[in-house]
Amino acid sequence: MELYERFRAGDIRALARAITLAESGHPLGQELLKRLRGHGQARVVGLTGSPGAGKSTLTDRLIEKARQRGERVAVLAVDPSSPFTGGAILGDRIRMMRHHQDPGVFIRSLASRGALGGLAGATVAALALLEAFGFERIFVETVGVGQSEVDIVRVADTTVLVLTPAAGDAVQAFKAGVMEIADVFVVNKFDLPGGERIVQELKTTLELAPARPGGWKPPVLTAVAPKAEGVDELFEAMDKHYRHILEQGLLNSQRLERARFEVESVIQEWGRRRTREGQGLIEQVAYGGLTPEEAAQQLLFSKG
To answer: The domain containing residue 287 runs over which residues?
Structure first.
């Protein structure tokens, strides 16, 4: 397979093509994934938070820090899907354009494609390809809406929740259940009014939270991304958490959970496709002819 050989030879265009094929579900992409999955090992860091929290600027600074350490870095920016085209918005890539000439950095936007949690199974497929290509650290920046914050923990080794002093930011985090899954908290834009207040709110809440696997205690950090303030501390906290999951033997279970998420995403996509094809059954549910369970069984288990 020519594309496979080019990929193994380090052709960045072959990597981009492979991700496109995998994202679209093309048979060639699936075959590449089977041959390449399991090659390489990267530290996968998920960054999530509300829109406007400064995730992209913070990611840009983390790229810079990783490159200073000689690491090859990739970024997957999971963007909202257009309901009409399914395409991704490229704003996150624009913010990181200063790295585009660095051969040690690869940045790619992926459409969430309406996945229930904002993350598509294609994200995990892209992670596998990036690992096989030799990237040592991969940042996954989520769309920051819906339940993507909850899904990211199933994909990343370390999950970073980015908050700001904006009124209501902490409250929304508490409501969404993110407090239970983030491994590192960072209050970005800490130079704005209310920074100390939200830090204290987070610390107080975390003191009452249940213990994490292996006894990990999530730190609450501060940052001002445009000035690179707090970036060194954030990077060290991410690495400390990664060392923790290695020492506690949690990495393998995390990788299994990532694969489970990918399989579930495929099943969800199959379900969406079948419901679009089964308009007659949907109408029967709407008018009381079938229960949702009966319609689902016919859609998922009928031949054709």
So the answer is: 250-304
